[in-house]
Amino acid sequence: MSMTFSGQVALVTGAAAGIGRATALAFAAQGLKVVVADLDAAGGEGTAALIREAGGEALFVRCDVTRDAEVRSLMASVIDAYGRLDYAFNNAGIEIEKGRLSEGSEAEFDAIMGVNVKGVWLCMKYQLPLMLAQGGGAIVNTASVAGLGAAPKMSIYSASKHAVIGLTKSAAIEYAKKKIRVNAVCPAVIDTDMFRRAYESDPKKGEFAATMHPVGRIGKVEEIATAVLYLCCDNAAFTTGQALAVDGGLTAM
Ligand SMILES: NC(=O)c1ccc[n+]([C@@H]2O[C@H](COP(=O)([O-])OP(=O)(O)OC[C@H]3O[C@@H](n4cnc5c(N)ncnc54)[C@H](O)[C@@H]3O)[C@@H](O)[C@H]2O)c1
Predict the structure, then answer these.
(1) The domain that contains 119 carries what CATH number?
(2) What is the C-alpha to C-alpha distance for residues 109 and 116, in angstroms, rounded to an integer?
(3) 233 lies in some domain
(4) Active-site residue 157, yes or no?
(5) Euclidean distance between the first and the last CA atom of the chain, given in angstroms as a whole number
(6) What is the pLDDT of residues 116-172, one digit of tens each?
(7) CB of 75 closer than 6 A to ligand 1?
(8) Which in 152, 159, 192, 208 has the greatest CB count within 10 A?
C-alpha cells in the first residue's frame, strides 16, 4: 500500500540540512509544495533549489524558531505563498553539550531549551490555528531517543526532547476531535552534520555509535523522512500522540 496525501502544502523547519532537508525532499517527491525554513539561508536556499531541480515547488523562508515574531511571520509567508498548511515537520534542533549535568552552563541550557522546546512550542502555537481554520492537518515534531530515556552527558538535550514529547502528546489530545494529528519522531543516531560534530572527532566514538544499535549501524536521513511522511499521510489517520522511535532497535533493548 502506498502512502496517500490529501493535503498539498508541507512546512519543514531545520530544513537546510540533515533530517529536515531529506524530509523536505521526500514531501516534494510526493507532489507537495514545500516551505523550507531555517536560520541558515545558504543551506535553506540549497534545499529549495534541489526541490525545484527535481521538478517540485518550494519556497525558502529564513526563520529563527526561537523568536515569536519570526515564527508568526513564517506562518504568514506559508499562507501568502500557498494559501494553507497541511503538514508541519517541526525539526529544527541543536545539541551542544558534552559534559556531565554539573558542567553545563546557563547559556547552554537556555540555547538548547530555546531551540528544541520553545521553537517547537512556538511553531505549533501558530500552526494549530491555521489547521483548525482549514479543518485539519498533521504535525510531526522531532524528539529523539534521548526524549524516551537517559542520555548521559547530554542531560539538557535529553530534558529538551522529553519536553518535545510532552508538548506533542498534550497538543494531540487537545486537537484529537478537530482532525489535527500530532506525533513525534524519535531518531537514534543518524548520519548528519550533527552526528559528525558529535562523533567524528573521535573514531572510537563513531564505532561505538554504530555498534550500540542492535542492527549494527547508524541510521540514514531518508529513514527518518519515511517515518515522518507516514505519520503525516492519510493512512496514519488513527495515529496521534505517539512518539515513534526509529532507532535500529535501540530502545527495545
Ligand atoms: N542526527 C542525529 O543523530 C539526531 C538524533 C536524534 C534527534 N535528532 C534531531 O533531529 C533534528 C535535526 O537534526 P539533524 O541531525 O538533521 O541536524 P543538523 O544540524 O544537520 O540540522 C539542524 C538544522 O536546524 C537548523 N537550526 C538550528 N537552530 C535553528 C533555529 N533557531 N531556527 C531555525 N533553524 C535552526 C540548523 O541551521 C540546521 O539546518 C534535531 O531536532 C535533532 O535534535 C538528530
Answers:
(1) 3.40.50.720
(2) 11
(3) yes
(4) yes
(5) 30
(6) 999 999 999 999 999 999 999 999 999 999 999 999 999 999 999 999 999 999 999
(7) no
(8) 192
